[in-house]
Design goal:
Helix content is 74%, strand content 0%. The protein has one domain: Cytochrome c/b562 (Four Helix Bundle (Hemerythrin (Met), subunit A), Up-down Bundle), CATH 1.20.120. With 146 residues, it is an all-alpha fold. The protein binds heme C. The site of heme C has 23 residues, from helix 1, helix 4 and helix 5.
Length: 146
Amino acid sequence: MTYKKIIMVSLLLTAAAIHADSEGIYKYRSGVMKAVGGQMASLGASLKGQVFTENLTLHARAMADLADIVPHIFPQGSGTKKSEALPAVWEKPEEFKNRVDDFVSAAKQLEKIVESGDMKAIGGGVQKLGKTCKGCHDDFREEHSN
Ligand code: HEC
């Protein structure tokens, strides 16, 4: 192989590695966000239908655990074709971080509520948490039907 060819090949490999990284990050992020959505759906259904209320603490804890992951899953340059994250995520990092912080503190707050056993406050805690989802999606996620 000529020197030029070697450089060409290594450039292509580097490009593929970068591509693979953001694809992998996106897939991981999508899984985490689906889990967040799943916990939220179960919390809402449990409260609304008064079903499986004995599991509310577990769901709130799971959400609080996911909240520890969310701040790390939007690294710079991890937008992909499939991703619904708007460029604003990386163009307005401070604003985005504020929305992440709102979500994390609402999730931790909900965990505290269920652990204190104050079942009357749970509805309000879940509602507050729900506002932080919408608060971020409105500005940082592509228009979506749900
Ligand atoms: C700080 C911003 C932010 C917060 C807070 C947030 N999200 Fe998201 N969410 C996003 C972004 C951005 C995406 C798109 C990610 C992508 O496609 O790369 C997303 C994607 C999702 C998805 C789709 C996942 C997939 O790939 O199918 C679901 C479901 C979801 N969020 C639910 C929630 C729920 C429920 C909450 C609140 C409990 C929440 N999100 C809080 C920013 C946020």
